[in-house]
Amino acid sequence: MKAPIPVVAAVIEKDGLLLLAQRPPGKALALKWEFPGGKVEPGESPEAALKREIREELGCEIEITGALRRFVHHYETVSIDMIPLRARLAPGSPPPHPHEHVALQWLPLNAVAAMDLPTADLPVLEELLASAGN
User: Quick one: pLDDT band at residue 1, thresholds 50, 70, 90?
Assistant: First the structure.
């Protein structure tokens, strides 16, 4: 089996809400809602990759505020090394805009649980829910 592909995911928080992005039709996991992010390029740090992906996908700037548990997730055709990072919009950043997604939504954590998420995002949601319960 191939080595897992390193993938970063942004848990962007604003005023108690989390940003979810809807994947476009015609792509893998079409129309599912996800924590935005993407692949880490060779030689790139996860933090740099996430800032680049968010700039490309959402046209905004973020600040990394922390990390969640890293894990490997196996899909049928590929395995990913999921690196979820907490973030917020950087001061002076334009608001996120869906350049590569169909739509964006700011949602409270309990509403995120009701969304149709890719299975790789579920452990991220579980960790957020567990930490919110403390």
Answer: low
Query: Is 0.85 surpassed by the pTM of this model?
Result: yes
pLDDT range class, residue 2, cuts 50, 70, 90: confident
Instruction: Note the Cα 128 to chain centre separation in Å.
Output: 13
- Spatial separation of the C-alpha atoms in residues 75 and 119, rounded to whole Å: 8
pLDDT in tens, 90-108: 999 999 999 999 999 999 9
Residue 29 and residue 113 in contact, taking contact as beta carbons nearer than 8 Å: no
Nearest to 17 by CA among 104, 111, 108: 108
Nearest to 89 by CA among 62, 55, 125, 112: 62
Domains and CATH numbers, the chain: 5-132 (3.90.79.10)
Distance CA 8, CA 50 (A): 6
Q: How far apart are the first and last CA of the chain?
A: 38
